[in-house]
Write a structure and sequence with these properties.
Blueprint (H helix, E strand, L loop, with lengths): L2 E4 L3 E4 L4 E5 L13 H9 L7 E7 L7 E7 L5 E5 L11
Antiparallel strand pairs: 1-2, 3-4, 4-5, 5-6
């Protein structure tokens, strides 16, 4: 089981959270002008990388807030978490 660090509540067991997918996916500037292919790309296409990956999580059994986590997809190591709008861990590297 993962021990996920909520930026508001501290470290908690994975069962208290819901996964929200890849973090930092930009919403289309003008969704009304998007064609079906562009909209499908926004909704369904995500990175599937091996290594460090930025994810969205929601602390559903705690503060009920969304936040981001930097997690390694192979080792499941978590480098840290951060609130929306904050600088991600490892952003300088």
């Amino acid at each position: 089981m993962l021990l996920i660090p909520c930026p508001w509540c501290g470290d908690r067991d994975e069962v208290e959270f819901h996964y929200g997918g890849q973090a930092h996916v930009a919403y289309p500037a003008d969704p009304e002008a998007s064609d079906d292919a562009a909209w499908a790309d926004y909704v369904f296409m995500r990175d599937n990388s091996k290594g460090w990956f930025r994810e969205r999580w929601m602390h559903s059994a705690g503060c009920r807030r969304w936040f981001n986590v930097l997690r390694h997809t192979v080792t499941y190591e978590i480098a840290g978490s951060y609130r929306p709008g904050d600088v991600p861990p490892g952003a300088a590297s």
